[in-house]
User: What shape does this take?
Amino acid sequence: AQSVTQLDSQVPVFEEAPVELRCNYSSSVSVYLFWYVQYPNQGLQLLLKYLSGSTLVKGINGFEAEFNKSQTSFHLRKPSVHISDTAEYFCAVKTSYDKVIFGPGTSLSVIP
Amino acid sequence: DAEITQSPRHKITETGRQVTLACHQTWNHNNMFWYRQDLGHGLRLIHYSYGVHDTNKGEVSDGYSVSRSNTEDLPLTLESAASSQTSVYFCASSEARPSSYNEQFFGPGTRLTVL
Assistant: This one.
């Protein structure tokens, strides 16, 4: 069965510092990969997605992620975080028609 | 602007009561989904629908039911609420095929507490 692992449940980082949120998946077939962001008391918003082509994907708010097929990873990065980036981040994998499997989430806290 | 709404936003109920959570979307999407969000589990799929009169079970469907009588609405019913169903519930919708992937748009969530 497919699964998504986010090893870091909480990531504190100082403002303007870089951050990497890790995501690994397991699947025996081709996958589509996504990062969603959830701000406090809100629903999820799509941050970026990898469907095919270039393995480096750029998303909204300065985030980017790199798909690494050999390591089955899709880590999310931002070179300089802002207070407004404080949120829950979910990695997700699509394995069949519109059945998206979500990881447990990583809580990013940006410290002023 | 098109949107997806959920009501109520907060609900407190007692064990054994029937509860219905509403989800309404104006995107005209064929696909609709219900998830529950629990700490450490991310989002887990409860039920989903690919169109009017179509419903399917997700990975955590026990104790829940849905019905799809029109494109816009997919209400989620807890037949007899249990404390284990205390959670935050999210509704989502997406376009149907032929696109290889259609982004899911999420509602703001309903926080349900079962006492």
Q: What stands out?
A: Chain A has a mean pLDDT of 91. Chain A is about 0% helix and 55% strand. The longest strand of chain A covers residues 87-96.
